[in-house]
Specification:
InterPro entries: Flavoprotein-like_sf, FMN_Rdtase-like_dom, NAD(P)H-dep_reductase. The chain is an alpha/beta fold. Helices cover 43% and strands 16% of the residues. The strands form 2 sheets. Strands 1, 2, 3, 6, 7 and 8 form a 6-stranded parallel β-sheet that branches. The radius of gyration is 15 Å and the shape is globular.
């Protein structure tokens, strides 16, 4: 199974990125796990560009990554009670992209206290007709710590939550 991960933070030391890296670590050989590295290179969404023949290469890379994936995991912090511009822009590029429709998606809330952006992200994904895997949409609080991806993957509580999410994602495909 192929999982595409999208990180809503562009920080090099992002806790959301560390959470996704820990998930990749725990996914092991059971999943082909890829963290998309070009969200910061996407131009601001413009429907005129999307409809033209000159769609930027980074947008094509995102679309190809979505095509490749069986499921998507999004981890994104909350900025000023909202989803980050990074993740919103990426999702805007996917709104009319048909292969995204009904794609199984899990949303990881990396915050130890914020929930408004998490709810907004789920609403955006529902509006886009993503197949939200509710059992894999979890708060895995890593934003208030300095744990590395390896530390997150080996922490009993974080490891258990990540494995719960991966199991829920797998279960979607076992019933197909």
């Amino acid at each position: 199974m192929k999982i595409l991960a999208l990180c809503g933070s562009l920080r090099k030391q992002s806790r959301s990125l560390a959470l996704l890296q820990a998930t990749a670590n725990l996914a092991g050989n059971q999943f082909d796990f890829s963290i998309f590295d070009g969200l910061g290179d996407l131009p601001l969404f413009n429907p005129d560009i999307e409809a033209s023949a000159s769609v930027p290469p980074t947008v094509h890379r995102l679309w190809e990554a979505v095509n490749w994936s069986d499921a998507i995991i999004i981890a994104s912090p909350e900025y000023a009670h909202g989803v980050t511009g990074t993740i919103k822009n990426a999702l805007d590029w996917l709104v009319a992209y048909v292969p995204f429709t009904n794609k199984p998606v899990a949303a990881f809330n990396p915050s130890h206290r914020a929930s408004i952006a998490d709810e907004a992200l789920r609403e955006i994904l529902s509006t886009m007709n993503a197949h939200l895997i509710t059992a894999a949409c979890l708060r895995i609080p890593v934003t208030n710590c300095q744990l590395s991806a390896e530390d997150i993957a080996s922490s009993d509580s974080h490891k258990e939550q990540i494995l719960t999410a991966l199991t829920a994602i797998s279960a979607i495909f076992e019933h197909k």
